[in-house]
Amino acid sequence: MCLIALAWQTHPEYPILMVSNRDEFYARPTRRMDFWPDKPVILAGRDLEAGGTWLGVSRTGRIAALTNVRELPEPRAFSRGHLVTTWLEGTHSPETFTQWLRSKGNQLAGYNLIFGNAEYLFWATNRPPESDCDSDFSAKELAPGIYSLSNASLNTPWPKAELAKRRLQNALGENEPLSLVDFCSVTADRETHADLSYYQEKSLGTERLLALSAQWIHTTDYGTRATTVIRRRGDGLWECLEQTFDAQAQLSASAEFSFKEQELPH
Q: What are phi and psi of 182, to 5 degrees?
């Protein structure tokens, strides 16, 4: 499970504001958010098992975020985390990147991907709703608005996703400017939701699904391992905060980054 709340072109000072929880098994090795030594354009956490990431930004002003679509796991030839890094370090247009995503086909397990920059954002998925598309891939540009994304389609009204949208909308409406830390509360609710009828995939069992119904998750082997806030100011300054948590659900580290967006070399 993961959870993303996104404000896109809704605030006069911040064209992009994203709050995200990364939920993962505690045993999966991970490196905290930082600029990557081998790919210094990328600022992101790193999955040390497969080498990719779930969320990141680039010095050139690109942003990408990934969630899995809940389904029974099957071995795949290509790790979904590499979708994020490919966008961040590349110079693809949205059109050529979308074509590349489409070409991956069934090499990838189910995913949602948000990608773009301060001028445009797209949502792509290889598990589109039947009402949207008759193929196994869909991509569309996002209109300005408040969005949520978990482990179903964009804006699927799961309780924790709807709560994230409301909290983000309320936070953006505050009279006083909020710090990055303040936005962490958007996805910090630990209340579970007993009515699980909205879940289509129920193979995990009632107890597990109940734990996963909360925004902020903690079980014996799996839970929210990081909350990340990314904000892009109108003047091109990117501000990022990552809070990481241990297997006891305690805050283990916090790091902030800021950098001015760089133009691509001609």
A: -60, -35
Q: 230 with 63: CB under 8 angstroms?
A: yes
Q: Is 249 exposed, middle or buried (0-12, 13-18, 19+ CB in 10 A)?
A: middle
In angstroms, the CA 152 to CA 163 distance is: 16
Q: Tens-of-pLDDT digits for all 266 residues of the chain?
A: 699 999 999 999 999 999 999 999 999 999 999 999 999 999 999 999 999 999 999 999 999 999 999 886 666 767 899 999 999 999 999 999 999 999 987 788 899 999 999 999 999 999 998 655 557 899 999 999 999 999 999 999 999 999 999 999 999 988 787 899 999 999 999 999 988 888 766 678 889 999 999 999 999 999 999 999 999 999 999 999 999 999 999 999 999 999 999 976 54
- Helices 81-89 and 94-104: crossing angle in degrees, nearest 10, is 150
Q: Which residue has the tokens 């920059």?
A: 117
- Cα dihedral 37, 81, 90, 237, rounded to 10, equals -70
List % helix, strand, coil for the chain (3-state, nearest 5): 20, 35, 45
Which pTM does this prediction carry? 0.94
Nearest 5 degrees, angle CA 246-CA 251-CA 252?
65
In the chain, the amino acid numbered 14 is Y
Q: What are the chain's domains?
A: 2-260 (3.60.60.10)
- The per-type count for the chain, helices as H runs and strands as E runs, is 5, 13
